Amino acid sequence: MKQLQVKTSSSEYPIYIGEDCLSVLAPFLQQATQTIVVTDQTVYDLHYQKLSHVLPENTITYIITPGESSKSFDCYHQIQTFLIESQVDRQACLLAFGGGVVGDLAGFVAATYMRGIDFIQIPTTLLAHDSAIGGKVAINHELGKNLIGAFYPPKAVVYDLRFLRTLSEKEWRCGLAEMVKHGFIANPSLLRQLLQIQSLDALLDETFAQLLIQSLMVKMEIVQMDEFEQGCRAYLNFGHTFGHAIELDEKELSHGEAVAIGILFSLYLSEHIFGIDLAIGQYLTYLKRLHFPLPFNVDHAKRYLGYMMHDKKNQRKQVRFVLLNQLAKPELVSFSIAGLETLLKQFLSEFTTKEERVCH
Ligand SMILES: NC(=O)c1ccc[n+]([C@@H]2O[C@H](COP(=O)([O-])OP(=O)(O)OC[C@H]3O[C@@H](n4cnc5c(N)ncnc54)[C@H](O)[C@@H]3O)[C@@H](O)[C@H]2O)c1
Ligand SMILES: O=C(O)C(=O)C[C@@H](O)[C@H](O)[C@H](O)COP(=O)(O)O
Ligand SMILES: [Zn+2]
């Protein structure tokens, strides 16, 4: 098991990562008056038993429906009601046991229940190596992703890699997208190795675990520098401006898949604005090799723009993108709506025509 320590301006917490590391939870739970587990049905069925060995007797558990639709006001309200009816007090500890959806939702519940109770992230997806660190917790609004939320750091992150063995190929793709993002913005060697992956079969070996730790460290180091996104933390949003828009527009796309497409557009804009070569073709080949869905459509350009107009990075009604002026050199670039519309349509028609078989 590896232990890292996140040190930000407001808090400090450990990350435990490795096989079979759940016993590290015991001292945290002994201090709490009660333990609440929030998880989803799939994670409950597959992995709750492993967790149950370390849970105190008076643990209560709330199970949500898997998927993005649970990051809603309704679900948030139902969990709060469950906590109130169960007379959970302020010294309780909430365990967010699942992927990014459980982490974001349960984290936001913890941040706001009686003005805040302790919570611990127990990520179970590859993508959640990103979402479990850094304290961004949120639910969605129909007008945009994560629009209602908080910065609320966990007391610990406990990442037991045994959970990853049951992930579907789709979930591997989602996690890889955020890893590739970390590679593009900060670690070209990580990026190079990720782009060489030939297949999603049996990915979780020792070499991959090392890449996962490198990716996690990119996230951790940026969060340590700028916990509340006053500056460089925005770089972690590379690929997310268009990514969040297409995620909202195309319900079949999960977050990571949408981010993978968002990265494609960010590379396109970067090449256009800075006149550089970021080997976009190589990235597209990688996406196709691993069967990432690429369902963008030039007819939806206005809808994508509508969503991007609510992006949290926007300033003075301009849409701000994280672009690369070279590999691992991100910067924020503002676009007027009209300017962005032209480039977006150009991108959509160029890539839809070229990749007719995969983009519909
Ligand atoms: N807070 C942050 O910094 C941050 C960062 C990245 C993403 N996010 C958010 O995270 C969410 C996406 O997270 P996600 O991709 O983990 O999605 P998810 O939580 O919906 O999990 C994906 C699917 O995998 C299933 N699953 C979870 N663990 C499993 C396991 N071990 N084996 C088999 N199936 C398992 C889930 O039931 C679900 O159906 C999005 O809402 C995104 O906005 C937040
Ligand atoms: O931690 C961050 O900061 C990120 O941007 C990480 C992203 O991968 C993640 O999807 C995050 O939830 C996006 O944040 P948002 O502020 O754009 O909602
Ligand atoms: Zn993301």
UniProtKB/TrEMBL annotation:
InterPro entries: Dehydroquinate_synthase, DHQ_synth_AroB, DHQ_synth_fam, DHQS/DOIS_N, DHQS_C. Zn(2+) binds at E178, H240, H255. It catalyses: 7-phospho-2-dehydro-3-deoxy-D-arabino-heptonate = 3-dehydroquinate + phosphate. NAD(+) binds at G100, V101, V102, G103, D104, T124, T125, K136, K145, F163, L164, R165, T166. Residues 175-314 form the 3-dehydroquinate synthase C-terminal domain. Keywords: Amino-acid biosynthesis, Aromatic amino acid biosynthesis, Cobalt, Cytoplasm, Lyase, Metal-binding, NAD, Nucleotide-binding, Zinc. It comes from the Bacteria. It is found in: Cytoplasm. Binds 1 divalent metal cation per subunit. Can use either Co(2+) or Zn(2+). Belongs to the sugar phosphate cyclases superfamily. Dehydroquinate synthase family. HAMAP family: DHQ_synthase. This is 3-dehydroquinate synthase.
